Amino acid sequence: MASVAEVLAELRDLGSAQTAKTYRRHGASGEVYGVSYADLYKLKKRLKMDHALARDLWRSGVSDARVLATMVADPAQASGVELEGWLRDVDNYGLAGHLADVAAQRADAVALAERWTASDDEWIGRAGWRVLTLLAMKPDGPLTDEYCARLLPRIERDIHRAKNYVSAAMNDAVIAVGGRSEALRIQATAAAKRIGKVNVDHGDTACKTPDAAAYIEKIWARRGQRTK
Hints:
Layout: H1 4-14, H2 17-25, H3 37-47, H4 51-60, H5 63-72, H6 80-87, H7 93-103, H8 109-117, H9 122-136, H10 145-158, H11 164-178, H12 182-195, H13 212-226
């Protein structure tokens, strides 16, 4: 079992100034080593699930270590209280999304998402909508089609007044709902067209906000091609 000191030393050796610069453009702050995701996934595969290590990596405060922490964390051991404590440390959209990936695997994922989407904090709100997006993408998951349909009017009402990256996450949720079933495809596409363009400031990056209606159609077109 690797110690946190050993993993941090390895992360430091794997980092590059250029990659760190890219991560900072995407909002990473504090100490950033600049470890590529290819290397992070290799470490995840080698280290496997290790929640004690995840806690130590998170406490280090190093941006790359915190991303890795979310990759090796055990969702069953990461209580809602603990994840909310971690969320209070988050200062960028990417890390909020990674924490959501952990939360979405918990039995209480829906309750966490509902609490987080009600928050005025940008990163907590983003994490909540990311959890709902991930759950909506699983037809056999805890969300029903009826639940997903009820998200659409809420998103329509709030998306243009939500905080920057919360708006982006809401837009992703519309796409996820639209890809869930034929009935929801129609409802989500109509909602997306009423919503119109979603303006998200992605800063000094090449990221763009997808047109939800067009993206939903692409999802179904790809599915149609696979069935031919």
